[in-house]
Structure formats: structure tokens, C-alpha cells
Amino acid sequence: MNHRDDAAALDRDDPLASLRDQFALGRDTIYLDGNSLGVPPKAAASRAAAVIAEEWGDGLIRSWNTAGWFALPKRLGNKLAPLIGAAEDEVVVTDTISSNLFKILSAALRVANERDPKRRVIVSERSNFPTDLYIAQGLIEQLDRGYELRLVDHASELASAIDENTAVAMITHVNYRTGAMHDMAALTRIIHQAGALAVWDLAHSAGAVPVDLNSAGADYAVGCTYKYLNGGPGSPAFIWVPKRLQNVFSQPLSGWWGHKKPFEMSPEYQPDDGIGRFLCGTQSIVSMSLVECGLDVFGQTDMATLRRKSLALSDLFIELVETRCSEFPLQLVTPRAHAERGSQASFEHPHGYEVTQALIARNVIGDYREPRILRFGFTPLYTRYVDVWDAVETLRDVLATEAWRAPEFAERGAVT
Ligand SMILES: *Cc1c(COP(=O)(O)O)cnc(C)c1O
């Protein structure tokens, strides 16, 4: 593509173009970081006001019943289910990915141990998001039963690392740094052939790429609602457990919300039947309520349509960076093959941090991940083809003028 007009023409033909109006995105902002924190749906502000003034203010304690607060984790779980190939009553929205991983890894290890007590290995990738690895390490220490975390350096080594000693393979579907995507069905088959259980992290998949957990035969999954699902900062995560595994074991954080009859106030824990047993304690209702506003936008389209535009956006971005910024040391680290790519494009640059800051100063918001990686997420609900064009032109200018060398762009905040 050689002209901005060509990008504008793609926007005119875009079947998703009208959905952008449903997001509160500043006119001058090019936002390529919806993979880290989604943009607020316009409906979120009025929903938050209604939850506070009407449900909390007028309804007070009655709202646990009358406003459906108590049922929210399951109701929203059912609303999210179609996006990830889950059936009714297999998903709850609750807690964080970190705490949910602790729950399902514990449940998975107990199932694996019941089947074959010799298996003492959890397999994952060294490049996995750190919290996933930390949680596995913490659980192994807590259990103190000789479990081991085996990490591979390349995805291609997974198949040989998963063997007769493997209890669980804990795999993040789309890598947060490179955007590389696993073939969920194929890898789950390999994991099952080795006799192990497959735990999937969908942080960069839910709402980003089509996912079909049940047809892949996956065993457990967690994911996040504040990234592509636009639930808001720190909005609760989700857990998926298929029906066949829900009642096999209960999770270790046996709080009262996972109890079969929480309001009998029994001194004995008795887990709920079904997915409810993966809850723990009282939920943050205001934040959770806003998750629905993001899901309602997804209800107006489907993942196949979103995926087509997502790939078109990332293809265009890669093409433009490689043609219009070719004299600069930018190296694509995201796979080119569509089947191996999530909804982002990442480039390595020797001064990736400074370049990212210089872009942000010009309202082109991507982010930076160690080491040296500029990361750009593509969110077809609200990103236009002209945004891609303009973002690359800004990148070209920042590199050509060396604007990124200004000393303020080398200063690091607590969050990068
Ligand atoms: C974003 C992300 C998380 C975040 O975990 P929280 O506990 O919700 O903060 C975890 N895992 C992966 C792979 C992620 O991308």
C-alpha cells in the first residue's frame, strides 16, 4: 500500500466500522494497546453510574438478589462462553488469572495424581507470562511433594518435553511478547497422547482470536477480561472447566462462594456442584458489572469476522513497517503465518523502550516488553486501517528524526 487513501478505502468497506462508535476513544489517539488494557465501551460509564446509584444506592443489600449480583459470575461466564467454544455452565468470571491458575493447576494436579501418581512434572515455556510460572512455582513449593516445573526454550521442544512423567502441560495460547500462537487442538492431542492434562491460558486469545476449547478437547483454561474483552482495569478474569472435570475435585481456595449452600452457614465446606465450586469469596461487583458492557459489543459480531479484520490490520502493519521503515533496525518477531499469529505484531529495535515512549508522546500508544520489543495490538472493534497507516508514518518520523533520543524517553515508569 502506498497511499493513506487506500487505507481509508478499506475502512469504508469494513463491516465492523460502525462498532467503533460504541467506544470512548479520544479522537486523536491511535490505540494499539488493547492487548494490554482495552478501551472503555461508552456503555461502561452509564452502567457504572447505575450500579452505584441505583443498585448499590437504592437497592442496598437487597441488590444481591434483586440486581442479580450473586449470580453475576455465572451469568457473565455464560455470556463469555461462545467466544471460547465453551458450553453453558462451564465458565465463571471471577478473581484474577493468577489466583485462577492456582485453582485449576491444583485441581489438575489432583486429577493427574489420581490417574498416575508417578507423574510429577508440569511442562511450560520459559517465555510464558511470568505470573503463570510464578504461580506454578509457588504451588509446587506449597505442595512439597516433589513436583517440578520443566521449561522449554522453544515451542518446537514441547512435544518431546511432554512425556510419561508429565502431569500437566500449562500452555499460554498466544505469547504475550511475540504474538506467536499455538495450534490448540494439535498440542492438546500431543499432551493427551502423553497421558497428561492440558491447561490453557487465554489471556491474549479471548476476544482476540477464535478459540474452541471443547472441540480442542482442552482440560482447563483461564483468561482475562481487561485486555481484548474491554472489561476495564483490573476487571475479573475467568475460569473454564468442562463438565466432565468439574466435580472430580474441588479447588483448594475453598471459600464460601464455592460452597453448595453458602447461606446455610454450615461449619463444613461442601463444594457446589458444577463450575460454581471454582469461586472463592465475595466479588468486586462494580468492576464485574462493567465486563458485561464489553461482552455486549462482541454479541453484535462474531469471532470469524473479527479475525479476518485482525489479520488484515496486522498484515498491513507489518507490510508498511517493512516497506516504509526499511532503513531502520526493526526486526519482526511475530510469525508471518496466519495460523501462528495472534492479534498483535511485535518488532525488536535496539532502543525499543525509547521508541515506544516517543510514539506514546505523539499519541500512538503501543507498549514495550523486555527485551527490546515494541508491541502493537490490533483490536478490530475500534481500530481502523487509517490508524495503522498513521501509526507507521509516526513511527517512521520518530525513527528518521531520531526524536526518540530525547532524554525524557529513557526514563522508566513503574509500568512499561
Ligand atoms: C495478562 C496476563 C496475565 C495477568 O494475570 P493477572 O493475575 O490477571 O494479573 C496472566 N497470564 C498471561 C499469559 C497474561 O497475558
Describe this structure in words.
- This protein folds into two domains: 4-40 and 301-409, Aspartate Aminotransferase, domain 1 (Alpha-Beta Complex); 68-299, Aspartate Aminotransferase, domain 2.
- Helix content is 38%, strand content 12%.
- The protein is built from 14 helices and 13 strands.
- A seven-stranded mixed sheet has the order 2-8-7-6-5-3-4, with helices on both faces. Strands 9-10-13-12 form a four-stranded antiparallel sheet.
- Helix 1 (4-12) packs antiparallel against helix 14, helix 5 (97-115) packs across helix 6 and helix 12 (303-324) packs parallel to helix 14 (385-400).
- The longest helix has 22 residues, at 303-324.
- The chain starts with a helix and ends in a 16-residue tail after the last helix.
- The mean pLDDT is 97.
- Bound molecules: pyridoxal-5'-phosphate.
- Residues 96-98, 129, 131-132, 172, 176, 201, 203-204, 224, 237 line the site of pyridoxal-5'-phosphate (PLP).
Distance between the termini: 32 Å
**Could you tell me which ligands this complex binds, including any ions or cofactors?**
pyridoxal-5'-phosphate
Helix count, DSSP H or I runs of 4 or more residues: 14
Tell me, what's the shape? globular
Low-confidence stretches: none
User: How much of the sequence is in beta strands?
Assistant: 5-15%
Round the mean pLDDT to the nearest integer and report it: 97
EC number: 3.7.1.3
Binding site for pyridoxal 5'-phosphate: 97-98, 129-132, 172, 201, 204, 226, 256, 282
Protein name: Kynureninase
Subunit structure: Homodimer.
